[in-house]
């Protein structure tokens, strides 16, 4: 058989495997959608307290209503004039396109938004499944595909960022991160894959800075593989660098207005990120393309070292502020009363003390996967794909030790080695069936499914809990997370509402009112004003209400933030209101008396 025939057969097999994987991902997506449909898509009526999903919908509405592409102000939150959000229009645009297309066909904007809230996360779920199945196949062969489908679908469903209504950017970031890994694994046999890996890495960074550790890790992996294996990695390094630098430039031009090209923002894609990305990508591509720079391993290492030195110098000299902790300058009160209580920002150690059941749910499968990779390394036979998967998994796990949100990535990356582990025991059960082999295969399945760990951990926690549990009506909404709780508020004339930050985004999405507080680190002035009002005296709250034209005060007694404020300042305005001490400058709205969300109108002479 000629080389041309061999290459043709290889391409045919690759096309067939891609078709099969796309079909499997589609089936997994339809299965998850069926589960959500049977439940009635509850997230469309109750966002579960996820302010980010709701505020993204507000941004999409504002964009469709004519707010400028480069104008990222949230005018209805914060002090008068609002504040500038740090999110990317790259996520707003496709959601807005779905809403626009469906509303044009049906003439129903509510239906269009509901379709977008279901279709967008489902599309991302399907793509993420494809990019989990493909690496599993590259990592452990065809036998790992079925485990990747089952374990991967269960893992993605468990982490919740692909549920209907999930419009936040975390699902986009995860999809792009696993896509970059998937394309790198296929780069030796698929010519365009390395460029697509660089493209995915650049888009991941552009969507949000939370993924900077993963993007940096991917770039270091590509450079290291090139340094030690020039014959197999030169083209991959070149194409990855070109994709990374080129797409970073396109994103910069497409999302940053000309007037802001000289401004460096550390929490969003800006001049700082573009300069570093362009230098890193173009530098890697140049080293891989110039024969003199990459002729020997020593020269490659020297050239890459110089590039790293240049990047470090640029960061230190031009953007030193971006090397500090992202919340280093946050007001101490906001750190104590807001940041320290964000679940996804907790460390492993705080989570272990506060919620051991969640600890097992978030860290068990990644830790098992890391142990499997370590045992594989000890046995020898380390391959290119092992290096890429192991390093990304390890970095994601380390990030999750710092902040729980990193477990979203480590759980997804863990599916790849876990699928290979299950495939190994399936082969053994088929070739030499015995009770021991079958039991080990079953154990591998059970240990690899994240939701089993979650269920077992929460069951154990419930069994060990003491004291009577608190029961409530099925329709109750003590934390004020459901759309129905804001119906009365939505019927009132537009005004400024004084409310805790947890209620900020729901108020914006379910009414036309504006608010001061919202759980966003750029909204410092608005959040501090709300703190001053709620934690201060009745007289101080009255003064703030008058000075800033507050028309309504919203109280949710069961919201954790309200309870925290009342505990922090038992003599403060909010604590008094929760005890039923209504000051004379407020008028209770009878319709909301006893409801989850109680409303008080500021009297005209208040």
From TrEMBL:
Span-the-membrane segments of this chain are 93-111, 118-136, 148-167, 174-199, 211-228, 240-262, 268-289, 301-319, 359-375, 387-403
Q: Where is the signal peptide?
A: none
- Supply the alphabetized keyword list: Membrane, Transmembrane, Transmembrane helix
Q: Can you tell which superkingdom this protein's organism belongs to?
A: Bacteria
State the protein's name. GtrA family protein
Source organism of the structure? Mesorhizobium calcicola
């Amino acid at each position: 058989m000629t080389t041309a025939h061999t290459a043709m057969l290889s391409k045919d097999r690759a096309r067939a495997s891609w078709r099969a994987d796309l079909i499997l991902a589609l089936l997994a997506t339809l299965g998850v959608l069926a589960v959500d449909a049977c439940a009635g898509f509850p997230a469309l009526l109750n966002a579960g307290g996820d302010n980010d999903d709701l505020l993204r919908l507000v941004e999409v509405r504002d964009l469709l209503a004519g707010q400028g592409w480069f104008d990222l102000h949230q005018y209805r939150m914060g002090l008068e004039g609002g504040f500038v959000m740090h999110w990317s229009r790259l996520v707003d645009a496709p959601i807005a396109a779905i809403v626009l297309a469906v509303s044009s066909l049906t003439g129903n904007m509510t239906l269009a938004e509901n379709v977008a809230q279901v279709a967008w996360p489902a599309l991302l779920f399907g793509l993420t499944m494809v990019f989990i199945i493909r690496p599993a196949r590259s990592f452990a062969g065809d036998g790992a595909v079925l485990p990747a489908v089952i374990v991967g679908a269960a893992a993605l469903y468990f982490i919740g960022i692909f549920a209907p209504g999930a419009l936040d950017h975390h699902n986009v970031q995860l999809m792009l991160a696993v896509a970059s890994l998937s394309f790198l694994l296929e780069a030796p046999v698929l010519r365009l894959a390395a460029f697509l890996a660089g493209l995915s890495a650049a888009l991941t960074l552009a969507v949000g800075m939370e993924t900077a550790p993963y993007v940096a890790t991917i770039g270091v992996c590509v450079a290291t593989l090139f340094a030690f294996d020039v014959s197999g990695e030169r083209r991959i390094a070149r194409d990855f660098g070109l994709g990374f630098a080129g797409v970073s430039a396109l994103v910069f031009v497409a999302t940053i207005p000309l007037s802001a090209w000289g401004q460096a923002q550390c929490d969003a894609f800006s001049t700082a990120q573009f300069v570093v990305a362009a230098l890193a990508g173009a530098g890697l591509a140049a080293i891989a393309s110039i024969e003199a720079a990459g002729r020997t391993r020593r020269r490659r290492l020297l050239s890459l070292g110089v590039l790293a030195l240049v990047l470090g110098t640029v960061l230190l000299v031009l953007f030193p502020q971006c090397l500090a902790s992202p919340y280093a300058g946050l007001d101490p009160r906001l750190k104590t009363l807001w940041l320290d209580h964000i679940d996804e920002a907790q460390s492993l150690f705080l989570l272990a003390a506060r919620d051991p059941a969640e600890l097992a749910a978030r860290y068990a499968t990644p830790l098992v996967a890391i142990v499997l990779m370590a045992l594989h390394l000890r046995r020898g036979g380390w391959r290119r794909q092992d290096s890429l998967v192991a390093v990304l998994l390890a970095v994601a796990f380390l990030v999750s030790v710092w902040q729980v949100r990193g477990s979203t990535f480590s759980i997804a990356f863990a599916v790849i080695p876990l699928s290979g582990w299950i495939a190994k025991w399936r082969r053994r059960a088929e070739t030499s069936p015995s009770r021991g082999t079958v039991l080990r295969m079953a154990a591998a399945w059970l240990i690899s499914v994240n939701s089993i760990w979650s269920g077992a951990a929460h069951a154990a926690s419930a069994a060990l809990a003491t004291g009577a549990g608190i029961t409530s009506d099925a329709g109750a909404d003590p934390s004020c997370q459901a759309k129905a709780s804001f119906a009365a508020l939505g019927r009132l004339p537009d005004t400024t509402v004084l409310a805790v930050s947890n209620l900020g985004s729901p108020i914006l999405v379910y009414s036309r009112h504006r608010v001061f507080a919202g759980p966003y680190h750029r909204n410092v002035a608005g959040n501090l004003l709300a703190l001053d009002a709620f934690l201060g005296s009745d007289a101080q709250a009255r003064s703030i209400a008058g000075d800033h034209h507050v028309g309504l005060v919203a109280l949710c007694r069961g919201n954790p933030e309200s309870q925290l404020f009342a505990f922090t300042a038992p003599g403060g305005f909010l604590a008094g209101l929760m005890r039923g001490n209504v000051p004379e400058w407020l008028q209770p709205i009878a319709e909301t008396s006893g409801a989850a969300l109680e409303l008080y109108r500021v009297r005209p002479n208040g």
